[in-house]
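Example for tutorial group B:
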């Protein structure tokens, strides 16, 4: 059983080795293989038409419009309230929780990867 998988691995490795000179995405740096991000091909006319049709049919929405609607419909803000139950003392709890999520999310994306 292992003989079959060893042969399959050897055949695959030989095919990869043979194709290495033509593979511009794979480079060797310090003796280690590095696979670069592949650059996308030009988008087809059909893909561009589809994108245009989607943009025409879907209204533009702002994140601050989406968050309160989903919070109200799904109730996800119930997970954010204080454990003590004192959220009844918070005026406009829905709006405050939505703003908290929005600003916290903005802070996380702004500083993502720096640190």
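The residue assignment follows.
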């Amino acid at each position: 059983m292992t003989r079959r998988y060893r042969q399959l691995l050897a055949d695959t490795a030989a095919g990869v080795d043979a194709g290495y000179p033509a593979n511009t995405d794979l480079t060797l740096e310090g003796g280690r293989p590095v696979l670069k991000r592949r650059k996308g091909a030009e988008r087809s006319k059909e893909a561009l038409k589809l994108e245009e049709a989607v943009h025409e049919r879907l209204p533009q929405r702002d994140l601050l419009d989406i968050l309160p609607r989903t919070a109200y419909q799904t109730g996800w803000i119930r997970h954010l309230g204080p454990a003590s139950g004192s959220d009844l003392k918070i005026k406009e709890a829905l709006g405050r929780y939505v703003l908290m999520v929005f600003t916290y999310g903005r802070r996380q994306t702004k500083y993502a990867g720096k640190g």
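The chain has four helices and two strands. Compare this with the pattern of hydrophobic and polar residues in the output above.
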